[in-house]
## 1
Amino acid sequence: MALTKFNYNSFDVTPVASTTMAFNSGANGLTTMSAGAMTLIKTVTASSDSSITLVNGTDDVVLDSTYPIYKVEMINVHPSSEQKFYVNFRDGGSAYDATKTTTQYRAYHFEGGTGGAVGYQDGLDLAQSTADQMIGQEIATDNDASGSGELWLFNPSSTTFVKHFMAHFSHHYTNAAPGCIDNWTAGYCNTTTAIDGIQFKFASGNIDAGTFKLYGIKDS
Amino acid sequence: MALSKVDYNSINVTAAASKALKWNSSANGFETGDVGGSLVLLDTFTSDGSDDTATFASSIDSTYKEYLFVWTDIHPETNDTDFTVNFRDGSTAYDATKTTTYFSATHSEDGTGGGLSYETAVDLAQATGVQKLSKSGMGNDNDHSCSGLLHLYDPSNTTFVKHFAARNHYSGHDEQSRDEYIAGYCNTTSAIDGVQFKFVSDEIQAGVIKMYGVL
């Protein structure tokens, strides 16, 4: 005898598009429930890559008006050589060269107990520059050394406002001076053109390893 | 003939309040579980172009241990103004007593002014007034705004004070990037049940603020 299968409208609840079926707050009936507001859009795993790019419309990446807020998690980013770690943004062309004004400071403390301090980093900030923005200083190449952090990008598709971004990236400093460097970077892409791509790379050499996770945070 | 629909207790799983119905890890039965994602959108403020305040007066309770507010492109009516926050601790007023810290990094488009500094004029010591999220200087040019986020921890707790931490970034009227860090506590064991954002004077003329519960 053929098994009779339940159809979507066989359950005692009114279907609502793109929601999940759940038990109600009294656990005595069914209801619909929206999924969480933070959506994993794309995971990219680095493997000896010269850069990692997240480009709207490429490889299932969404970076447009679908979400008002985007967040990138950078996990265990490991370089092929001791170099600074950078981010840049694409504002219409194919180049990652959006004009930016930024701030940059860092706290640091070495494994030997010295150097505990915090300070602004003149020369690592940008003033109306199209250059890459440093978000991490030289990361050691020891096998267990890496850097992790996050980048927030607000309303990249706006054609009214400049585009704010904020990064926090903590990492293991050089082999010669092992310690923790805690980097805080923020700024704005001074353009009313939409930002549709993000690129991460080291000053030179490759991103030997690391996971980059792009999330969209919903507005409804 | 009336359609016979499957009732909640006809499904081979024990019902659990406000839990989703999912397949189990072996895909051979049902189980209950949380809806995917740990960030739950609870409320949204969207400026109508002339708002005195952005107020979140409901849905802040013991449901979540952490609440996250994220604001995007908040645009002021007035040049050189301050974006602020305050908290409600039982009455209708947003006047919880707070002790806070504030520091910021700045850098101007002409390359000057790069620095990191603590601002004694912006922190609070047992004060009920608003906490500034932006130090004076925010611009009202058409493309100027601020964006940022605020974490409010365990607001319904009646044992401990209520910690909060915020980070705000704005483009200033003097063409400056300012990255601001604010943290503190509402020095009360009463529950915090409301959060209000506003400029020190005049209107919020654009922007969106979202309140999330963090599972």
## 2
Amino acid sequence: MLMGSMGKKFDKLLVLLFWFAGILLMFSTVGTCVDVILRYFFNRPIHWMLEITEYIMLYIPFLGAGFVLKEEGHIRVDILINHFSESTRRVLNILTSFIGGMVMLVYTWFGGQVTWEYFKRGVPALESLKTPMFLILMVIPIGGFFFTIQFFRQMIHYYSKPRSQIRK
Amino acid sequence: MEWWLSLLLLIGGTVLLLFFGLPVGVSFLFANLLGAFVFMGGISGFKLLILNLEESLTSFGLLTVPMFILMGEVMFHSKMALRAIDALDCWIGRIPGRLSLLAVASGTIFAATSGSTIANTSMLGSLLIPEMKRRGYKEIMTIGPIIGSGALAMLIPPSILAVILATLIEVSVGKMLIAGILPGLLLASFYALYIIFRCRLQPELAPPYEIPPLPLSKKLRDTVLYVFPLGLIIFLVVGIIFLGMATPSEAASMGAVGSILLSLLYRGMNGEVFKKCLFGTIKMTTFMFIIIMASMVFSQILAFSGASSGLIQAVVKLKLPPLLILISMQVTLLFLGCFMDNLSIAVIAVPIYMPVLRALGFNPLWVAAMTLINMDMGNLTPPFGLQLFVMKGLQPTTPMAVIIRSTLPFVLCEALTLIAIMIFPDIALYLPNLMRKG
């Protein structure tokens, strides 16, 4: 799961989820435009477009988070750690990756629990489409899972980096 | 628990992790776990937290953010902006500092098509600096105007930070965007006045040069072909929002689709370019949305823990003039701006500041407009002004001290605009008040 050939497959999954977010975004973009035009000129709006777009807004960051972490695209405040020595920085990076992984693990776990409860009870969203809530919520544990794993992979990466350099 | 203790626990925990290099959004997510555990009934609070996260992001208004990013990416990668600069260039005559003024004019127009200050600065810089150098312009008239004009993108709609601020303080996104127009134009005119004034005093800073005469027909043709279509996009976004014909999200997606169609017409778009644009958009949207989501829930927990109301009471008890509190808050923001990026400052400060300012009776739109300029200045001030680093990246051989010195007059222009808005709130509020609805 973390390194090696499994790691490569995991990377591919991250990319796949990322581009899935891209497809969802383009769907919302074009759909919203078409909705405006149909409403304004033909008085026939697409009623479900707005609601679906709201759910897509939740999907995008959770689908993209793992890949963006891998690309080191999340904003970090680095003014303090830049002043530390290489070895302190390494320890801090291992530590923050671990904390990040644990934080996301909690969200993944409880996200999964909440999703499962809503699935069992069959609660719909309080909107006109009556979308089952679990379909909306499930992206939190799914995306959270990949985000968690990526944090732990990053931790291992920071941990093993200097040693592999020594071996060379 | 005492309010100040909860505040210390929540803010302290976040800031500590933040400075140890945990991604900003995840630091807030950690603080939320902490807060939910302490104030919302232990483990069962975590489930509530998940539902709060879901609720904070499932908002149609947030679509504005990726749409503005996409618009900017398309303008940048399809090179549409390049042609517009050339067309504008024809119209400026033989005046001192003409290239610096061109930077301000193009910066204003790009600001109205893109919401990213970094994209704006790097585009203007890579396009104009070589020409400025060739014409013998000194740094103060090359680097300064470009960094300053790049920063206009944060004020003039579409501005991504304006949307985020509006979402965080729960005011109308449409009104917040419109509120940035007049301050943005005022700032641009301050820049222009400074350039003209300085170049009259010291013509050697920006030596005038002969311009080959161009036939009027070509000038008109280029303007119609390359500047007017950008104007159309500006109308699509700003006009539709102002007239209340559609919501900001709808207007923004029209703008994004409009700029993609336009780039296809100019043959600046293909599969590769589109992929690059979408990639950049999703990447930025992902980290921004995680930060927004975590920060919105963070504000709720702050309120729930009693920290917000405790702070309000403590500040009110001080019996200081409200304006003094407002000023000291702006000064603190400016100070934070020297060390942190805008988004992090906004998400840390807004949940603490806004309840207090509301309780003191300030118009949140007015405060937000000032905060936007303040964040802009933070981008331009050492030691950690983001824009300074962007410029250093463009001009690796120029010493940082020179970049900072050249930027200083333009930072003062921003300070002047900020003070002007503080004294005359109508600069920010006049246009939003004209709108019928948000």
